[in-house]
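User: Batch of two.

Assistant: Item 1 of 2:
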Amino acid sequence: MAPDEVEIVHRDPAFVVLQKPVGVPVTATKDRARGTLTEGLIRRLQAEGEPRPYVGVVHRLDQGASGLVLMTIRGVANRSLHRQFAEHRIERDYRIGVHGEVPDAVTCDRPLIVRRNERVEVVAHGTGGAVSAMTHFRTLARDQVRNTDVRVIRYALLEARLETGRTHQIRAHAAAAGFPIVGDRRYGSRDTDAFTATESEAPAPGLLLHAHRLRFEHPLSGERVDVVSTLPGWASTEAV
């Protein structure tokens, strides 16, 4: 990412909260070493006069998702923020667009296992090797419509709140609960595109998963920090 493409939503001398665009990885992956959010922030700090900037990643966000990512820019902030993350004290709210029949509210607490192919499997309680996971879902709007160049996508808009921060947790829990996220080919299916249009072989509309809000304790002062992102159009309750 170019330095001027890095969107800083909240800035502090010890940390920043960035808004990650769709398709940009937070850190280097096996398929992509350049153009990451971390690299963009380093270049942004260098352009501001930091000769050897420090950037620490507190948590990640799927490449296909968008929204808030917390990073440290001073090592002194690492210990507190990583502890808060490990102890599940960083509150994270997401907006997701899903298919299927959705209840007004539901909590999924089924454990997860990461398989060798990096796919996360939702398993029964007591399964060996599984880790605990809990996601709270709340329906914000039904019968939402998103118009694209070739598709009219119909979906329900939900808020997802994490109590744990496991790999692909929201995606796996939503699919297991019967309402997979739009555009999620890994945990949904081709039907996960949920379109009504003539060109059925058109590309998927993208993963409708957006990290909307972060709440945590300031790593130095202990004061409460509450950061809210700009919502993409599909994540608004007035998306029709």
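Item 2 of 2:
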Amino acid sequence: MRLRCSDVWWDIEAGQDCSRITREVGEAVKTFGLPWLDAMADFETARQAVKDWPLQALGFDLAAGAVERARQRFHELVQGSADSRALRTWGRARGLTD
């Protein structure tokens, strides 16, 4: 399953009848939200869905016990980060630093 990153926003103003918006939001949850959540309930499916998102993929590597792969991703993230202080602290707490 491919993730689609597009936001939909509904504008609501004071005193507005929200019944149409309520229906649209409910349909969007049924059509897109629930199927996505069902698919992401499987660990490997979720892991594959975030493989191109470095920090999320690193988290899945840690959860799967793939520590060496997580260390590799961590070092790539630190090298690509302008301000890596918080990232280094996070990685140190998870045993990803040298």
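Residues 30 and 50 are 22 Å apart (CA to CA).
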